[in-house]
Amino acid sequence: MQYLLDTNICIHYINGEFNLAARIDAVGLANCFLSSVTIAELTYGIANSAPSRRANNRRNLIELQQLFKSRILTFESAIETYATQRALLKRIGRLQGEFDMLIGSTALAHGLILVTRNTRHFADIPGLALENWIDQL
């Protein structure tokens, strides 16, 4: 199985929480991917953080990007899936946040299981497989 790690999972991983490094090792780093949208959210987090923490946060993001190298998927790869899913959810009155829609659509477009602590944010996307590696512990 292959996985797309949501932003909140990356934050917990960076912070060394919930034994996520061991979980990623167990499934194989080669089977784990990030979305460019997650990189954007983490970059925003750096810009929004206290000035005294920005340099450390930036180093952590660079290390994460280096770890995942060629396994960062762009949202352009999921544009059609995103459009279809967003239109469907709009018709049924269940729209989600834009970034969550892009991340979920990326997982769906690539046939990946989305790993997130916020499963309710993604539960309405039809066909999207979800796992919560934190609250399962």
* Mean of residue pLDDT values: 92
The CATH homology group name: 5'-nuclease
Radius of gyration: 15 Å
Strand order of the largest sheet: 3-2-1-4-5
| CATH structural class | Alpha Beta
Class per helix and strand makeup: alpha/beta
Distance between the termini: 19 Å
Low-confidence stretches: none
Could you estimate the helical fraction of the residues in percent? 55-70%
The CATH topology assignment is Rossmann fold
Give the DSSP E fraction (strand runs of 2 or more residues): 5-15%
Please tally the β strands and state the result.
5
Contiguous helical run count: 7
How many distinct domains? 1
Characterization of this structure:
With 137 residues, the protein is an alpha/beta fold. Helices cover 55% and strands 10% of the residues. Helix 3 (36-48) packs antiparallel against helix 4 (51-68) and helix 5 (79-91) crosses helix 6 (98-109). The longest helix is centred in the middle third of the chain and has 18 residues, at 51-68.
Any key phrases for this structure?
single chain; 137 residues; alpha/beta; Rossmann fold; five-stranded parallel β-sheet; 55% helix; globular
Explain briefly what this protein structure is.
The protein has 137 residues and is α/β, with parallel strands linked by helices. Helix content is 55%, strand content 10%.
